[in-house]
Amino acid sequence: MLILECPCCGVRAEESELAPGGEAHLKRFGAGASDEDFEAYMFARKNPKGVHFERWRHAHGCGKWFLAARDTATLEVFGTYPAQTKAPPAELIAAIKAKRPHWEGYE
């Protein structure tokens, strides 16, 4: 079972208490974007096997969105952080690299 800590309220919650929101740190495109950029935003996802950054909502708790780094193959959670963060925190990247030395990193 996947357990994530909500950085907003501090509760460690099982995945049944959370709602997934897809890939984190996407560059959003809207009105005025080219068809190719908007199509890539809507449909192209990395979906890697390994470390992945995702959006989650504490649906049955505080209701706030947050971001999480986890391994999609093992479900190992490296950490969570507020949704307003533009890039993963440096200490989280360091923790991932410490456990996954061959990880290519966040783009």
From TrEMBL:
InterPro entries reported in the protein's UniProt record: SoxD (IPR006279), SoxD_sf (IPR038561)
Gene Ontology MF terms in the entry: sarcosine oxidase activity
A Gene Ontology BP annotation from the UniProt entry: tetrahydrofolate metabolic process
Judging by the UniProt lineage, the source's domain of life is Bacteria
Q: Which Pfam families match?
A: SoxD
Q: What is this protein called?
A: Sarcosine oxidase subunit delta
What is the organism of origin for this protein? Allgaiera indica
State the organism's lineage.
Answer: Bacteria, Pseudomonadati, Pseudomonadota, Alphaproteobacteria, Rhodobacterales
